[in-house]
Amino acid sequence: MKNIFRNALSVMAGRAEKNRSIPRMSSSDPAIMASDALAVTDRLFYETSGALLGRGEAERLTSGALEGMDDGELFLEYRETESISLENGVIRSASFDTSSGFGLRSVLGEESGFAHSDEISESALRRASETVQLVRAGRSGQQAAAPRSTNTQLYPGSNPMDGTEFARRAAVLQEIDAYARAADARVVQVMASLNTEWQAVQILRADGGRAADLRPLVRLNVSVVVEKDGRRESGSHGFGGRYEVARLLDPAAWKGAADEALRMALVLLEAKPAPAGEMEVVLGSGWPGILLHEAVGHGLEGDFNRKGTSAFAGLVGQRVASPGVTVVDDGTLPGRRGSLTVDDEGTPSGRTVMIEDGILTGFIQDRQNARLMGVRPTGNGRRQSYAYPPLPRMTNTLMQGGSATTEEMIGSVKRGLYAVHFGGGQVDITSGKFVFSASEAYLIEDGKVTVPVKGATLIGNGPDAMTKVSMIGSDVALDPGIGTCGKAGQGVPVGVGQPTLKMTGLTVGGTA
User: Fold this and answer.
1) HSE-up of 246 (CA within 13 Å, CB side)?
2) Cα 442 to chain centroid, rounded
3) Is the dihedral of CA 323, 328, 333, 338 positive or negative?
4) How confident is the model over 132-153, as pLDDT tens digits?
């Protein structure tokens, strides 16, 4: 098995190096520093051997395509991704991929034209230009003001795989497997995965303005299955962000993830069926903010509100949550999974207060919806890749802290649920209705946490749920860096967070 494993590593490493048709930038490359992302992306898109598009042609064709439009941009992208997964001591899959392409968008009023290609060439861009010009149809718009520039650096621009060998990145997964099995004899299965990505983007505008960003992204996940007396339960934990992969390979870091996955699995071995009914619920800090993200955050995106399809449409200035509830979207947090130096339209990321002390104050915006609603863009125009147009999307969405302690909140509950971690969920943007499953939860009885329960789901309505927040903790925490948000068929990395919260009168679905 060891020889097979070594051979697999050699093959994958060889493929990775063979597929790097565009020279990689090392962490010591001076072009990576601070505000020089433009220099790096110029080299990637225009100056490599065999480049089919020059900067001059790109600027000229973009300017011509967007003539007479209100807005638009040329989005150039290069991406490297590596994924390694292990199951029961064996590397089950390992892949390395590079992709590149462009997306050209024109905007006129509420209409937009979009064309994309995986070939970055003058001929492909010329065809795309002809396509997006069809939106104009004899009309003319007024060109929107360009985004401001920024020298902010929220994360390193170097490729996160630099400084580590493929063999080491793969071998750490086997070390995780061995560590988890040695930790407890009840462990019967271990799964682990390591995902690494480097994205380089450059955005060109009709007026010749340019912005660029170099985005690392890493994530490690560990899942453990335990068995006792014929009963099997599983637990999982992951972490990551916009930094070098070497941080994931630190034994202290991955051992912490394995320990947490095992702890959750062992808790579920002792869990009893969850009760059902209306009760008080205490939500843990950090990842339980996914409920806030899904049940409330999507309803605060500009496009849904401009079209009147959000439960929050037309409510700016009105109370939509309990006093003390303040919700922000902050894409400026260094190294976080959802953070961006600039969004995918070239607007610097920002911190947007959407709900302040329970009052709805505004929405997160891309450029088109902001212009149509008469407000400023907030740096939330995001896209999955060059093949998609940008939409208003969340970055890191979190609730601000209060003054209560977790002990005070639990102590005030006669009978209720303490939900520490969440799994999946669903939400209807128009109605705000949501259903979320708790992956780790405990019963609260007479002000004390008693037994773990499984099968608990929280059912409610986002806007209504925010009015049921009765106590807010001071322990604001962000998730460990594992979130991906889906909208209109596009997935983007996001962060969520909140302090511990007490909510009254939530409906809990159970199996007891």
Assistant:
1) 10
2) 28
3) positive
4) 999 998 898 999 999 998 988 9
Specify the amino acid at residue 441: A
DSSP state for residue 389 in the 8-state scheme: -
Q: Distance between CA atoms of 442 and 234, rounded to whole angstroms?
A: 17
Q: Amino acid identity of 225?
A: V
| CA–CA dist 77, 43 (Å, integer) | 12
- pTM of the model as a whole: 0.91
Give the tokens for residue 476. 């604001």
Question: Between the CA of residue 271 and those of 403, 419, 447, what are the distances in Å?
Answer: 31, 13, 19
- What span, in angstroms and rounded, lies between the C-alpha atoms of 28 and 199? 18
Short-list 94, 82, 75, CA closest to 12: 94
Q: Hey, what are 213's tokens?
A: 């960003």
Question: What tens digit of pLDDT does each residue of 261-282 get?
Answer: 999 999 999 999 999 999 999 9
DSSP category for residue 100: E
Distance from CA of residue 464 to its chain's centroid?
25
Backbone phi, psi, residue 494, to 5°? -140, 165
- Please give the Cα distance from 141 to 108 (Å, whole number): 6
